[in-house]
Amino acid sequence: MLMLALTCIRTCLQDEPVRMVMQGQLTQAVRLAMVRLEKRPSPQAADSHALLGQIVGRSLIALGREEEAEELFRRQLRIYEMSSRACVRWMSSMDQGAMQLALNRLSRAADAFNTVADDETAPVPLRVEALAGLSVSLRGLGEYRRADRTLSHAQVMAQAHTPMILQRLLEATRMESSVLSGLRAFDEGSDAAPISVGAGLPSYSRAQLLELAGEFDDLVIARRRLTFLAALLPHRSKTEQAANIVENLHFVRQQKLSGHECECRVEAALALVGNGEAKSAHDVLESLAHDEESVRRHRYSLELKYCISRIYALQGRHADALRLYKEHVNQAMGRLRAELAQLPYSRCLEKQQMADHNDSMKMLLPLRYRRAYQYIVEHLDDRDLSVREVAAHIDVTERALQMAFRSHLGMAPAELIRRKRMDGIRKELREAPDRPNVLDVAQRWGMTNRSTLTQNYRHFFKETPTTMLRGGAPFPATPGTEPEDLQ
Questions:
Q1: What is the CATH classification number for the domain harbouring 63?
Q2: How confident is the model at residue 238 (pLDDT cuts 50, 70, 90)?
Q3: Both 268 and 407 in a single domain?
Q4: Of 93-97, 156-160, 298-302, 409-413, which one has max mean pLDDT?
Q5: How many CB atoms lie within 10 A of CB 65?
């Protein structure tokens, strides 16, 4: 529901159906808006018509009416075409991302959202929402750390270009990720204490969740979601926690949000089994799956198998628990191999991976200068990135920065910047789905000079970019050789 709230805020529409969606009255809002969406708009009204259609489509998904949402998204393509080709690409990708996320097809959702998130020509609010969608997709695959870093990137991007309420929704999404990571990682010897899966993520208390929920007076769908997440956290009284969870599930069912209800029931069951409440967890899941065969056919079969195996264990049915848990593990491993292999190339994720893979190098630096290293990795796409800027960021002189990097890493900050940029350019050229324009790729990594690009690329990889793309032999580094055509 937080993604739906992000869409409502991003569109800036003041229509009555949008207000009703924000208040949680999705059924009434869809009924009212569909009458308007059936009429073809004038060119002047095409943009607002397209934005309203996006909100209605996502509302239909939350209501469990995916087929109607898919049909609406197909009709919307004709409306997008009234704006521009870029609009068709952006909006249709966002629609597909929302649909695939609802169907629990996470790598496809990530691919769709990444199309917009990595497009620097897309409007900033749209890219911010796409990054949030990419983060939710990664979270579903268990990539909590990458999901959190993606959200952090979205928050930085949003600071100067989006309203405060959208920025607070990003913080709410971050809280959601923290809570859900904790639900999926329990220490058997404690009261639902999160362990390694969520390592490195910020943790939040019930009070913090409820405090942020109080900021969304006019955005009930966000407030109710945060209230539900707060109910999932351990309480002093198990009875009180179960009652709060049931109350929130009742509200979801009362609003006929059957698509969202499925996700909520799985999350509720995870919280209850972590608290040792086998009967309450069983009651919560009963409407989703009546037997193990229906569990295996369910779109959330992976999560359901885990929950039910935990319920069996709490009931003393250890053989059944072990059998179903083995199925869960095998399915999880197969899904991870398939889904993670299909994740799209993303400059945002690539920079995160650089930071992750180079933690050992960063740890060689004194504590203060690690922040400089991190700053470099996060700002490689800034063509104006300079040693002076990095030094100012950590409040040291350029000379001190140079000496620290040379002493501990064996290279100057400028050389590190060049090396990281070349690594990013090379990986994007290799992994981009279509043959990319080399100069466009280089510019996205902060490199604008054709001659400098060729010279640095040849220095590090003993070939030029176009030679690598053509699969030819390494280009000889002879003095005076003119740079190749990089188109």
A1: 1.25.40.10
A2: confident
A3: no
A4: 93-97
A5: 19
Q: Is residue 448 situated within a structural domain?
A: yes
308 and 383 assigned to the same domain: no
- Torsion sign across C-alpha atoms 116, 120, 123, 129: positive
Non-local (6+) Cβ contacts of 154 within 8 A are 128, 131, 132, 135, 170
Same domain, 193 and 61: yes
- Statement to judge: residues 249 and 379 lie in one domain: no
By C-alpha distance, which of 299, 176, 164 is closest to 228?
A: 176
CATH classification of the domain holding 464:
1.10.10.60
Euclidean distance between CA atoms 55 and 442, whole angstroms: 36
Give the domain range for residue 198. Answer: 2-340
Q: How far is CA 163 from CA 56, 87, 113, 133, 154, in A?
A: 22, 22, 21, 18, 13
The reply to whether 128 and 253 lie within a common domain is yes
Over 70: is that where the pLDDT of 384 sits? yes
Q: How far apart are the first and last CA of the chain?
A: 44
Measuring CA to CA, which residue among 24, 207, 111, 45 is closest to residue 433? 111
Which residue is associated with the tokens 């969740």?
209
**Whether 305 and 170 share a structural domain:** yes
471 band by pLDDT with thresholds 50, 70 and 90: low
Query: What gap in Å lies between CA 377 and CA 421, rounded to an integer?
Result: 9
User: Does 114 lie in the same domain as 250?
Assistant: yes
Say whether both 259 and 367 belong to one domain: no
Task: For residue 269, give the nearest of 217, 304, 296 by alpha carbon.
Answer: 304
Do 147 and 197 contact (CB within 8 A), yes or no? no
Residue 152: predicted pLDDT: 87
Cα 420-423-427 angle, rounded to 5 deg: 145
Question: Which segments of 38-143 does DSSP mark as H helices, in order?
Answer: 46-62, 66-80, 85-102, 106-117, 124-140
> Do residues 483 and 441 lie in contact, with contact meaning Cβ atoms separated by under 8 Å?
no
Establish if 302 belongs to a structural domain. Answer: yes
Inter-residue contact 305 to 297 (CB < 8 Å) = no
Tokens of 133: 């969608």
Number of domains in the chain: 2
Closest CA to 96 of 62, 130, 144: 130
**Predicted TM-score (pTM) of this structure:** 0.75
